[in-house]
Amino acid sequence: MLKFFARYKTFAIVFFILSVIIIFCIYTLLKPEERLPVYQPDMVNAELVDSTKQYVRKYHKIADFELVNQNGDTITQEDYKDKIYIADFFFTTCLTICPIMTDHMIQIQEKIKNDDEVFLLSHTVFPVTDSVPVLKKYAEEKGVIDEKWNLVTGDKKQIYDLARKSYLATKSTGDGGKYDMIHTENFVLVDKDRQIRGFYDGTDPEAIENLMHDLKVLKAEDN
C-alpha cells in the first residue's frame, strides 16, 4: 500500500495544484464585475434634492458651473473634463463637522496626489464671507495642493443650485430663506461623465475607506 501511494504521490500533487487553478479560474470567470451605481435624483433622500429634481430617474449629470478658487482663478466644468473628482460643501469658519471633513480630504489628497485622473473640489456655502483671500489663507493652513484641490466661492444662487440640483448633497433650511442651506457632511464621487457614483459621510473614517475602494472600482470601469 505504501508503495502504491509513493508511486502516485507526484501525480496527486500535480492533480491537486491543477484543481486549485481550475477552481480559481472558474470562480474568477463567474464572479460578476464590481460596478458602482449611477445615482439619479429619485434614488436620493428627497431632503437633499431640490423639488424640481426629486422625480428625475435618468440622465442626471452635474451642471455647468463657473466659480473662483483660492488663487482667484476661474474654475469651470472644463477644469474637470475627463476627470474623476470628489466634491463637498463646507465653510472656513465651521467649528463642528468641517474640520473633520477637511482632515479627511487632506488624507484623500495625500493618496491621490500622484494620480492624474482624480481631483478634489470643495464649495463654500458662505461665499459672502469666504472670499478668495480667506480661501487662500485656509488652503495654506491646511496644506492644500493647488493642482489637486480647488476651494471655490462665487454666486450664492449658483452654489445653492449646484448643491441641491446637481450634487444632491445638502438640505435646505426649510425656513423660506432664499438660497440658504444646512451644511451636511456628504462627499460626492463624480465620474468622468459628470455622473454621481457615490455618497459618503465625510466625518466617518470607515466611509472614507469605502470611498477609496469605490474610487478604485470606478477607475477600473474606465480601463
Estimate the mean pLDDT confidence.
89
Q: Tell me how many strands there are.
A: 9
Which descriptor suits the 3D outline?
globular
Distance between the termini: 55 Å
Protein name: Protein SCO1/2
Disulfide bonds: 94-98
GO molecular function: metal ion binding
Pfam families: SCO1-SenC
Secondary structure layout:
Blueprint: H1 2-7, H2 9-30, E1 66-68, E2 74-76, E3 84-90, H3 98-112, E4 118-124, H4 132-142, E5 149-152, H5 156-166, E6 171-172, E7 181-182, E8 186-190, E9 196-201, H6 205-222
Parallel strand pairs: 3-4, 4-5
Antiparallel strand pairs: 1-2, 3-8, 6-7, 8-9
Explain what this protein looks like in three dimensions.
With 223 residues, the protein is α/β, with parallel strands linked by helices. It folds into 2 domains: 1-31; 41-222, Glutaredoxin (3-Layer(aba) Sandwich), CATH 3.40.30. Helices cover 37% and strands 17% of the residues. It has 6 helices and 9 strands. The protein has helices at 2-7, 9-30, 98-112, 132-142, 156-166, 205-222; strands at 66-68, 74-76, 84-90, 118-124, 149-152, 171-172, 181-182, 186-190, 196-201. A 5-stranded mixed sheet has the order 5-4-3-8-9. Strand 6 and strand 7 (181-182) form a beta hairpin. Mean pLDDT is 89; it is low at 24-30.
Structure described in brief:
The protein has helices spanning 2-7, 9-30, 98-112, 132-142, 156-166, 205-222, and strands at 66-68, 74-76, 84-90, 118-124, 149-152, 171-172, 181-182, 186-190, 196-201. By secondary structure, it is of the alpha/beta class.
